[in-house]
Automatic annotation (TrEMBL):
This is DUF1330 domain-containing protein. The lineage of its organism: Bacteria, Bacillati, Actinomycetota, Actinomycetes, Streptosporangiales. Gene3D superfamilies: 3.30.70.100. SUPFAM superfamilies: Dimeric alpha+beta barrel (SSF54909). InterPro entries: Dimeric_a/b-barrel (IPR011008), DUF1330 (IPR010753). Pfam families: DUF1330. Residues 35-109 form the DUF1330 domain. It comes from Lipingzhangella rawalii.
Length: 123
């Protein structure tokens, strides 16, 4: 299963997102013994998120799903707000950030990374 986006995927998906704040939805399924690697990645990644104007809105354990198909349960959920799509794009392209991405790759067996934008009626 995929856990890391390709450069082409990042460009394609982010180009579909309107300019303005985005919240990146992260659904995470850990590899065996992956939680400690992800915790280390998170400690390092926090400074990059903040460097590019982002903030972690929520990070928590996934519970048993109330409504889901078989196999759709996730170990953890993370919501990270970025001021705009370019901030996210610059963060993941940062050479220093690239040095820690192997920790994330090792930690996960599957992931969903989906940019979201606020609904106008919910503001």
């Amino acid at each position: 299963m995929a856990v890391d986006p390709t450069g082409a995927d990042v460009d394609r998906v982010l180009d579909e997102v309107p300019d303005g704040p985005i919240v990146m939805l992260n659904l995470l399924r850990f590899a065996p013994e992956g939680r400690s690697s992800y915790a280390e990645y998170s400690r390092h990644a926090k400074r990059f998120v903040e460097r590019y104007g982002g903030e972690v809105l929520y990070a928590g354990e996934g519970g048993s799903p109330l409504v889901a198909e078989e196999g759709q349960a996730w170990d953890a959920v993370l919501l990270v707000r970025y001021p705009n799509r370019e901030a996210f794009r610059r963060m993941i392209a940062d050479p220093e950030y690239q040095e820690i991405t192997e920790l994330r790759t090792q930690a996960l067996s599957e992931a969903v990374l989906q940019p979201t934008v606020p609904w106008s009626f919910a503001r």
